[in-house]
Amino acid sequence: MLPERLTWVDETNRDQHHFLEVADRCLFFGDFFGGRDWSAGHTNQLIRNYKRTPQEIAASIRARQLQYYKDQAVGEVAAALRKAFSAAAVEARTFVPIPTSKVRGDPDYCDRLERTLRLAFQGYNADLRPILRQTVSTEADHRSGRDRKSYQELLDITAVDAALSDPEPRAEIVLFDDVLTSGKHFRVAKTRILEVWPGRPILGMFIARCVHARD
User: Fold this and answer.
1) I need a surface site. Which of 12, 49, 120, 169 has the fewest CB within 10 A?
2) Quick one: pLDDT at residue 174?
3) What is d(CA 57, CA 167) in angstroms, rounded to the nearest whole number?
């Protein structure tokens, strides 16, 4: 199971996520060991199942089993979030999933982040909105090797969905993603949010942070 206690990114580990700044407030549950498979521990197995793509599942002879494991991973993360945030804490915030690499309508689009939030906070007066979106599909960073989008390239294709920006978000916005690696996607998301709502407090919430062997 994921650790019940959330951990802050702080001066002991912030330099491992080089797009983060000192003022950034980010929390995570566990450590994901980059470059290693499921045998590296429960969090690695959880993330592996959580991030499986629709096409990857559909192409497998074990499709039903893989879908079961993915749904199980969504449920585990949702349960951890529900323990971490009281109803009052949820209802004081707007939760925004950081955009996935595929746009809606793409065969590999996955709504796992939004689905997790809805499952976690069902029954609460929660404000869960996919305010941010990519305007074109890209290859996910963890699958693209060295051909990753730069910060500026990613910023250029990330936008606030005007249709979902009214009413204004609540007092604090929580940006939710699965793995904190360099912090690039968080930085892009925070930049776009603050362009529309300057000064709004932002909290980053991650299932895990990526730890590389050199760390």
Assistant:
1) 12
2) 98
3) 37
d(CA 142, CA 56): 15
- And the tokens for 104? 């809606």
Closest of 141, 153, 213 to residue 177, by C-alpha: 141
**pLDDT of 212 strictly over 80:** no
CB 158 within 8 A of CB 99: yes
Q: What is the dihedral of CA 85, 66, 97, 156, to 10 degrees?
A: 160
pLDDT digits (tens, 9 = 90+) for 106-147: 999 999 999 999 999 999 999 999 999 999 999 887 555 556
DSSP-H helix ranges across the chain:
42-50, 54-59, 63-84, 87-91, 112-120, 151-156, 184-196
CB 205 within 8 A of CB 30: no
Per DSSP, 139 falls in state -
- DSSP assignment letter at 104: T
User: Taking a C-beta distance cutoff of 8 angstroms, is the pair 192, 28 a contact?
Assistant: no
Interatomic CA distance for residues 146 and 66, integer angstroms? 28
- The pTM score is 0.94
